[in-house]
DNA sequence: CATATATTCGAAATTTATTCGATTGACTGT
DNA sequence: ACAGTCAATCGAATAAATTTCGAATATATG
């Protein structure tokens, strides 16, 4: 598993820009970080092959396509047998309406973020999926009033660990 | 606020592709949905101006840049006065380590997803930010064992509501 | 200080994005 | 059914960006 990589200030600048806006052209990024387009291109290619830059995803306005309601499900699971839980996790993540799954420690075992058309739709997902599996002990549902996703480097400017370490 | 938009099967196909991989070229998308590049380009432009396609963000391997630990904070807030809560939400979202903030109904008021270097770093964020604000009544912390984000259309194939409705 | 390695650059070659007028197809009202 | 209106699609031309690559520069190593 790729855990550590050497990145300099310029790499971080590139990553920071692409996290904010993956639609930036190579030319624009090059200008922003002070490199020639060819050099910048080389670095981006390297970041991808090294597994730092993983992918890019477009964000669509889910309200606009008929999903105005969001919820978080707090799921308690029974005695965790690796196999069964893993299967349930996979099948949960495979539901189109599911936007994220967190397997966590503490009072709950699983947090599931879903988007739905309406309350009926939400009820359907819970009753058809979660209340059907034996591993699920209990589900608590919270409606999401407001949700903000942050696509920024979790690091203050110029705090990139250089290769000097 | 833009809530409803007319989208046909092709629009959904384009959105589905871009959600999965925002690095696809216009040419590739055009081929995949069976349009000429110029037509596809026109549609994508329209999707953006209509506010359906909002943005795109690169996903970086946070392990690789020194953030191997994730946590979810369950926050209870005091009597919700709009102004104060709103300010606290904004300041929370402004923390670089925060990846998402959910204002929810139910047992907790706020869910915060954070990435950190280590436990010390996590403790620091909680004590420096959350335990410093009067609105915060209580914080429960869960370590994230596993986290899967889903970047797919929350809709089964060919289930796009056509303009016929 | 000399050697080896990695980065950077600029220019050429390739590919892609973008514009635009003409054509096709779909919808409206009579 | 039919003419008229509007929107979508296409292909070709132009503009712009990506990608490759050898030479030059900088950086690290012994």
Automatic annotation (TrEMBL), chains A, B:
<dbReference type="InterPro" id="IPR019887">
    <property type="entry name" value="Tscrpt_reg_AsnC/Lrp_C"/>
</dbReference>
<dbReference type="InterPro" id="IPR000485">
    <property type="entry name" value="AsnC-type_HTH_dom"/>
</dbReference>
<keyword id="KW-0804">Transcription</keyword>
<feature type="domain" description="HTH asnC-type">
    <location>
        <begin position="7"/>
        <end position="68"/>
    </location>
</feature>
<dbReference type="InterPro" id="IPR011008">
    <property type="entry name" value="Dimeric_a/b-barrel"/>
</dbReference>
<protein>
    <submittedName>
        <fullName>Lrp/AsnC family transcriptional regulator</fullName>
    </submittedName>
</protein>
<dbReference type="Pfam" id="PF13404">
    <property type="entry name" value="HTH_AsnC-type"/>
</dbReference>
<dbReference type="Pfam" id="PF01037">
    <property type="entry name" value="AsnC_trans_reg"/>
</dbReference>
<dbReference type="InterPro" id="IPR011991">
    <property type="entry name" value="ArsR-like_HTH"/>
</dbReference>
<dbReference type="InterPro" id="IPR036390">
    <property type="entry name" value="WH_DNA-bd_sf"/>
</dbReference>
<dbReference type="InterPro" id="IPR019888">
    <property type="entry name" value="Tscrpt_reg_AsnC-like"/>
</dbReference>
<dbReference type="InterPro" id="IPR036388">
    <property type="entry name" value="WH-like_DNA-bd_sf"/>
</dbReference>
<keyword id="KW-0805">Transcription regulation</keyword>
<keyword id="KW-0238">DNA-binding</keyword>
